[in-house]
Amino acid sequence: MDALRALHNRNSVNLLESPGPSAEQLKNIFKAGLRACDHKNLRPWRFIQIEGDARHQLGELLLTAKTAMDGAEPDAESAAKLRAKPLRAPLVIVVAAHITEHEKVPEIEQILSAGASAQMMMVAAFAQGLGAIWRSGALMFRPEVHQGLGLADNEKIVGFLYMGKAGRAKRVPRLDPADFVRSWPE
Ligand SMILES: Cc1cc2nc3c(=O)[nH]c(=O)nc-3n(C[C@H](O)[C@H](O)[C@H](O)COP(=O)(O)O)c2cc1C
């Protein structure tokens, strides 16, 4: 797909089915993530690929984190829902920022770069005909999730990218750039 067409039309897909991206598609996705803008070339991007049965382990981890966050186990129905969250797509990519102390590059810039790499991967998925959605939530900030995923103290999760075969695509809103842009001074 032409680059501008992908950039202008990318959208999120909630309903994601198997199969997940092929090995070649996934490599293209990660390569796109590695082209995010990056002050001082600190390469703050970390990606964790979770698929197959490992998604069940992620579900357990989310449940552990939720229990710790609330100080009590959720009821059976909520627990089942939480456990099932990672099963909403054949592939989940956890995107994290690896923060390096640097006098010229504050943490926020490194987190932004990790966010940019997530967006690059979203567009690369779309450009290859895949469906994807970027998800987050309070649990991604929990220490239980960080520890469970093997993240270091200087790493922060910026999102969970769910990817798979697009089930039902939604319409892309036609926004007018003029509503978001102004010249300065006016
Ligand atoms: C940092 C971030 C976190 C997000 N977290 C969620 C989420 O937890 N759940 C959700 O449904 N959408 C979440 N979204 C929004 C969707 O990824 C998506 O962008 C939104 O539904 C708009 O659809 P579109 O991308 O097709 O315009 C998040 C987006 C960003 C940038």
Write structural notes for this entry.
Strands 1, 2, 3, 4 and 5 form a 5-stranded antiparallel beta sheet that branches. This protein has a single domain (11-168), classed as NADH Oxidase (3-Layer(aba) Sandwich), CATH 3.40.109. Helix 2 packs antiparallel against helix 5. The mean pLDDT is 97. By secondary structure, the protein is of the alpha+beta class. The protein starts with a helix and ends in a 20-residue tail after the last strand. Helix content is 38%, strand content 18%. The longest helix is centred in the middle third of the chain and has 21 residues, at 107-127. The site of flavin mononucleotide has 8 residues, from strand 4.
Brief characterization of the structure:
This protein is of the alpha+beta class and 186 residues long.
Core attributes:
five-stranded antiparallel beta sheet, NADH Oxidase, alpha+beta, binds flavin mononucleotide, 186 residues, 18% strand, 6 helices
CATH topology, which one?
NADH Oxidase
- How many beta-strand segments? 5
Question: Pairing-aware structural class of the strands and helices?
Answer: alpha+beta
The CATH architecture assignment turns out to be 3-Layer(aba) Sandwich
Silhouette: globular
Tally of individual helices? 6
Instruction: State the helicity in percent bands.
Output: 25-40%
Whole-number average pLDDT?
97
The low-confidence runs, each spanning 5 or more residues with pLDDT under 50, are: none
CATH class label: Alpha Beta
List the helices and strands in order: HEHEHHEHEHE
